[in-house]
């Protein structure tokens, strides 16, 4: 089983996670920019973070034969912090970089006027840079947030085929299914979606435009729940081709629209560096 995790925050994961993921069949991933877990105090913090997403994390992933790509953006939670607003001016220089295959995560947290403005501005950047957009739906009042998201996407003029509306569930998926946008689902222990619930939605809506991710981050999460979803699909009678479509070909098709997806050399692990799994030293 080959797996492309279309939304996972490896900055918050350990090297052991990379090793487990490679052994489970994860060959590629996209890491969207997200909230640090506490407020950032200035735009320079984002600069260092974005530099790590396009430099350090791809190198770290490559040690285990995994292709790392990223999405760059100002996340909705920090869109409300005036100290972070100047990050919008930094984004164009990152959105032009190789390995950046989308703008994101963007969207809503509390559905404030500031979030409206930042969301629209970043969708405009996605259009200007001809990049897909990865959209976060809010944890609270999710249905209203999803409908508002679809309205802003429509107003932006972006091709809905370039948008994935993520963190969907049984309540919100129906609204997105008819929009032309891709549908994203985060498989989490205890919250969001489970493998069995995901299988039920795949039976109802089919595998088209479906992206299944682990969204693993700082909290209680599991980067192998994509694999668990694949096993649940097979147990429910889906074919191996169905699983490959959902866990590999769909994310390849979505992020491939960026023209920057590089899947060469996947699963070719690098040699040890003097007994270490990562090269040390240097500038």
Layout of helices and strands:
Elements: E1 3-5, H1 15-24, E2 26-32, H2 43-54, H3 56-62, E3 67-72, H4 87-95, E4 100-107, H5 113-129, E5 133-136, H6 142-156, E6 163-166, H7 173-177, E7 182-186, H8 195-205, E8 210-213, H9 225-235, H10 240-256
Parallel strand pairs: 1-2, 2-3, 3-4, 4-5, 5-6, 6-7, 7-8
Helix pairs in contact: 4-5, 8-9, 9-10
Explain what this protein looks like in three dimensions:
The protein is an alpha/beta fold. The protein has one domain: TIM Barrel (Alpha-Beta Barrel). 40% of the residues lie in helices and 14% in strands. The chain has ten helices and eight strands. Strands 1-2-3-4-5-6-7-8 form an eight-stranded parallel β-sheet, sandwiched between helices. Helix 4 packs parallel to helix 5 and helix 8 packs across helix 9. The protein is globular, with a radius of gyration of 18 Å. The mean pLDDT is 92.
Query: What structural class do the secondary elements suggest?
Result: alpha/beta
User: What percent of residues adopt helix (DSSP H or I)?
Assistant: 40-55%
Low-confidence stretches: none
Order of helices and strands: EHEHHEHEHEHEHEHEHH
Query: What would CATH call the class?
Result: Alpha Beta
**Number of spatially distinct domains:** 1
β-strand number: 8
Mean of all residue-level pLDDT scores: 92
Query: Which term fits the overall shape?
Result: globular
CATH architecture: Alpha-Beta Barrel
Task: Determine the strand fraction and express it as a percent band.
Answer: 5-15%
Distance between the termini: 38 Å
Radius of gyration: 18 Å
The largest sheet has its strands arranged as 1-2-3-4-5-6-7-8
Q: Kindly identify the CATH topology.
A: TIM Barrel
- Which quaternary structure do these chains form? single chain
CATH homology-level superfamily: Metal-dependent hydrolases
Reported for the largest beta sheet, the result is: 8 strands, parallel
Q: What is the number of helical segments per DSSP (H or I, 4+ residues)?
A: 10
């Amino acid at each position: 089983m080959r797996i492309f995790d279309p939304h996972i925050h490896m900055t918050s994961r350990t090297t052991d996670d990379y090793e487990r993921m490679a052994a489970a069949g994860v060959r590629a991933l996209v890491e969207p920019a997200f909230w640090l877990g506490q407020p950032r105090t200035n735009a320079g913090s984002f600069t260092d973070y974005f530099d790590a997403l396009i430099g350090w994390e791809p190198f770290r992933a490559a040690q285990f034969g995994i292709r790392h790509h990223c999405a760059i953006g100002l996340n909705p939670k920090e869109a409300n912090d005036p100290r972070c607003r100047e990050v919008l001016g930094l984004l164009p220089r990152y959105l032009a970089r190789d390995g950046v295959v989308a703008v994101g995560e963007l969207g809503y947290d509390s559905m404030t006027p500031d979030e409206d403005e930042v969301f629209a501005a970043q969708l405009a950047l996605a259009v200007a840079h001809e990049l897909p957009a990865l959209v976060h739906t809010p944890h609270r009042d999710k249905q209203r947030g999803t409908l508002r998201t679809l309205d802003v996407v429509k107003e932006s003029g972006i091709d809905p085929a370039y948008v994935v509306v993520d963190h969907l569930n049984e309540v919100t998926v129906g609204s997105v299914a008819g929009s032309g946008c891709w549908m994203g689902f985060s498989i989490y222990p205890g919250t969001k979606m489970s493998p069995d619930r995901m299988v039920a939605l795949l039976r109802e809506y089919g595998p088209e435009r479906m992206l299944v991710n682990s969204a693993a981050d700082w909290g209680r999460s599991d980067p192998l729940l994509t694999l668990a979803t694949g096993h649940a699909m097979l147990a429910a009678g889906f074919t191996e081709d169905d699983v490959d479509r959902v866990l590999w070909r769909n994310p390849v098709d979505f992020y491939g629209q960026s023209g920057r997806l590089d899947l060469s050399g996947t699963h070719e692990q690098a040699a040890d560096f003097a007994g270490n799994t990562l090269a040390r030293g240097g500038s």
